[in-house]
Amino acid sequence: MAHILEERQNQVSTAGANERTIDCNKASLAGSVSQRACVFCGSRVVLYPISDALHLIHGPIGCAAYTWDIRGSLSSGPELHRLSFSTDLQERDVIFGGETKLYNAALELIKAHKPNAAFIYSTCIVGVIGDDVERACRMLEAETGIPVIAVEAPGFQGSKKDGYKVACESIFKLVGRVNKPIPAKSINILGDFNLAGELWILLEYYKKMGVHVNATITGDGRVEAISNAHNAALNVVQCSGSMNYLAKLMKDKYNIPSMRVSYFGIEDMSDALYDVARFFKDDDMMEKARILVKEEISRMMPALAWYKERLTGKKAAIYVGGAFKAISLVKALRLIGVQSVIVGSQTGTPEDYELIKKLCDEGTIIVDDSNPIELSHFVKEKQADIFIGGVKERPIAHKIGLGFCDHNHERKEPLAGYEGMINFAKEIYATAMSPVWKFTK
Amino acid sequence: MKQTMEPIITTQDKTKTALAVGAASFVSTRNSCKLCAPLGASLVFKGIEGCVPLIHGSQGCATYIRRYMISHYKEPVDIASSNFSEEATIYGGSRNFITGINNIIKQYKPKVIGIASTCLSETIGEDIPGHIYNYKEANESTGGKLPTFIHASTPSYCGSHAEGFHNTVLASIKTLAEFDKTGSKITILPGMVSPADIRYLKELLSDFGIAFTLFPDYSETLDNVYTAEYQLIPSGGTTVHEIQRMGNARATIEFGTSFNKGFSRLKDKNAMQTAGEWLESSFYITNHQMPLPIGIEASDKLVEVLESLSGQKLPEKHVKERGRLVDAYVDAHKYVFGKKALLYGEEDFVMAMADWCREIGVEPFYIKGADFETLREKAEEFKPDFLLGNSKGYYIARERNIPLVRVGFPIHDRFGANRMHHIGYRGTQELFDRVVNALIEYKQENSPIGYKYL
Q1: Which of A118, A213, A427, B195 has a beta carbon 3.0–4.6 Å from A54's, enabling a disulfide?
Q2: Which of A37, A68, A106 comes nearest B59 by C-beta?
Q3: For residues A51 and A39, what is the distance between their CA atoms, to the nearest angstrom?
């Protein structure tokens, strides 16, 4: 495989007989044009949906500018998270220090916007010029009376995944600050980002089952609910790559168990409901879940069958941020007759990749932290018809004549839950069946 | 701390200040209008044939900039990163630099590698020219031709993406241009314009019969045809040879008035030159510096220079385009007269747009160095009838329920940004039609009865 750099050969494998364990969890290779971002990005995307907090980015302008209103993460209330605040460090600040500027900037913004908490992100050079952000945060907290949390996220201190960890630590600093009584059968939802309102679909399901949702930490998030998150009985974790660490922190300190779920596709969505009912050992809840699942599935089956009939035989390439999502996508695609021939992620773990190998048909290419050259080779080699990925993969797919489904955080159509599955099928159908492909053959 | 925050509010009369705007009320930047310098550098590097940009810093810089450019151009944008780790940050990035260059060469076989620095690599004092020198010395003997290296210093704490762009144009020319007296071409440096604008300029100059080098030319690399295969490096771009030959051009035409002068590096405060000025002072090449040719008057200025350089009159095709534009101005003048436009974007672009607004009877408003939140607050005083700028001002237009006419960079919420014209008679025609129709549509949509004719 000449198109794969030598140092990356072990990050590619195929499902089937001669399978090799994927080498992942490592830094991107210099010069390889990775599709990943950095530590700052990881922390920013996870904390972003906390909509009543102030997010101030301490550094030169780029980091704030590129992450302004970046996620389609909806809020049912405040929209402070959709503004982009930066200390916009200048050369003079870099030389003489940016701490005072940071303090003044944060103070004026807190006064103007009255947030319930503030996150101060340190970018690359802040770590280098030695600004004491922690101290500034302590002073600000004393002055304003709200939690002011330093998010230590210099881009060079690891990969995007390390940024997730930083975000988890930052959220954890909020947890435990509020003690409000909540119903016994309460869960926290971690790792759903309420893209296109997906969270609200899930809330409806859990409500029907009689489950109380306490904090929705990473989607439509609120400081108070997060501060009270330690009173829930269970953490339900999607996007485990980003949020498992927070679940672990909460398990260690507050003894809250967690479970890993996915809301994409029928099987995984249904399991997400059944598993919660099973956890609470509540027959009534389980019965309600069964009724809900039955209703939803019988409602959507005719439509799915229609899509399956037309899409059977199509081949898909999947390259997304988290591997657990990739697993759900493989299953969801199967439901509509589409075979996954390439499955990759930016941040998968060895366990994730083992699962993918077991799940996928023989010969499926499995790849960690890929790049445009590899991806374009793989899709040609496997003759994929459709690519499922994010913004950066779209032009690659389109340039070589593949349909594309955006499954990243900018999407505007909900793809989670049962109605999300129908939207997903619709989108795959629309891109696979468009008449425009006759001009690209 | 915001030293650039002087108010420039203009009306029909350029000398009269209609509304005074105080200095920045906020220390922080809220919803920035500017982007960082390495983005501008990457754009220039994409305009060099066979070039792969390398951003010497953390992985995020390259990825963010790629994402930002991809969302505008709807084209693959491969930008490599030297992917700084903690170790590199402490001990220096030379090893990452070498690995990065090696991997780019292995994968892309580029003719040129354009290296932009970042806030991180500049702050820790990375000696990129030194890295390049060492790399060449270590690898030149191993046989095989090495790519050409161009380095632009673009820390994001100095200026914006516009300065990054101009500094990189300057750096590329400084690196490559060679002096002799044999050339008869002219050099055209259009600045940050759209791929369609670049194609238009090439057509205009060709119609004049002028031999020219346009730099940077990303009209193909960032607005490519359907290729079926993944082109590692999209075809097109100004060649290294052409940039080398800029040292013997007979004239330079350079669009812009503010360029990279919006800020000054502490170390070379008064030494900032534009590429055209540098070519003039180093190689005695006459520099025709002019505002971006948006509007009839500004385009006439360009045509005047082209006429004198070519000894030809404006070709009939373009005379007709100008004539149709005048005709359109006349037909639709009352729909725009007295309207107020809020402008934002790169300074040179905004200045040119403002002049054009005045030309058609629209009152332009803009604030130098302002962020979007400041503009949003001041819009309360200005009460603009429409916004003229990139798609990031959409939220202000939405809040005020007024039209946004999308121009410039970035346009992330529409298709066709690369096919959009802004300059010359043709670009002005397109702009004028779009502005007129946006205002008419607005009135029609908000009319209680609705109508089918004007």
Answers
A1: A118
A2: A37
A3: 21
